[in-house]
Amino acid sequence: MKYIFTTVFFFAFGYMSSAQDGYFTTYGHEIEKGELEIAFMLDHTSPCAFKRAQGQRNYLSQMPELEYHPTSQLALEFMPEAFQEFETGISKFTGFRFEARYRLFKNEVPLNPTIYFEYEDLDPETRFKMEISGWVIPPYEENEEFPKREKILENRLILSQNIKNWNVAVNWINEVDSRTGFTAFGYAMGTQYKVFSVDDENTGEYICPMHPEEKSEKPEKCSKCGMSLISKSSEHKFLSAASLSFELIGTLGDTKKMGIIPFRQEHYFQPSIMLHMPKGNMLGMGFALGLTDASDDLFRLMWMKEF
């Protein structure tokens, strides 16, 4: 009952409380001035054999998100998180994250470089895979004791490009321990294809499913996000648009030893779908399939609303 209560609490917070351009882990470059987004992400995780030997069991982890864009280049976000194990009954609020993303150029440019900074105040037992870095099984001897709290400064270089209905994005991830300067490395990359459902009835007016204020008498592209405009009559459909994404996420070692040693690291293939519904509601569903023995298997859900 304890983990059920925590899940319900976090869902309620999320309903009052963004997604990464349709991805689960990778970030793209799109930022719209004045936009407010609330979201709730829920993962069901089956740990790998190594983590099970350390005592982990199947668990739920949650992350509500509240995001606001004060300018067309700056995004701010707050994210608390928690997890609950089924077999052991362990339920824990693990901390929070503050995030800022800044797109360097207001207009579309090649690769649209964006910089990302995040402060993490987390319990070392935190479970939600917002990103991954470092090692599961370090290839060196560890002498340090685990801190009571992790004070991490994460930064990313985000490169993202729209090509017609496609988006391609690559993120380089650094997670720096604010106490020691020790840095763990990771990556996230993805491609997304936007699929649109258009009503056969032509009303003579077309709108963007993401930006209803963008209107035209022709089925052209939205000037803000590049999406295809849809017939206004389809605005009232249950499903106005959908996008498919495929991501690769993983770790690249740390400042003690950098490299790829798969049986010691987490690497994932992550397919997902995002459904766009009326009034700015979106529902995402996906899997993170472990590619190595040190990787878990996840089923992921995300609900988001844009204002």
The coarse silhouette is globular
Number of strands: 15
Q: Estimate the mean pLDDT confidence.
A: 87
- Spatially, the strands of the biggest sheet line up as 1-2-3-4-5-6-7-8-12-13-14-15
Helix proportion range? under 10%
Question: Mind explaining what this structure looks like?
Answer:
There is one protein chain. The chain is built from two helices and 15 strands. Residues 1-19 and 197-202 have low confidence and may be disordered. The strands form two sheets. Strands 1-2-3-4-5-6-7-8-12-13-14-15 form a twelve-stranded antiparallel beta barrel. Strands 10-9-11 form a three-stranded antiparallel beta sheet, with no helix packed on it. The chain is mainly β and 307 residues long. The longest helix is centred in the N-terminal third of the chain and has 15 residues, at 2-16. The chain has a domain at 2-187 and 293-306.
What layout of secondary structure does this protein have?
Layout: H1 2-16, E1 36-46, H2 49-53, E2 59-68, E3 74-85, E4 91-103, E5 114-122, E6 150-163, E7 166-177, E8 183-196, E9 206-207, E10 215-216, E11 230-231, E12 241-254, E13 267-276, E14 281-290, E15 297-306
Antiparallel strand pairs: 1-2, 1-15, 2-3, 3-4, 4-5, 5-6, 6-7, 7-8, 8-12, 9-10, 9-11, 12-13, 13-14, 14-15
Give a quick set of tags describing it.
307 residues, mainly beta, 12-stranded antiparallel barrel, 3-stranded antiparallel β-sheet, 2 helices, globular, disordered N terminus
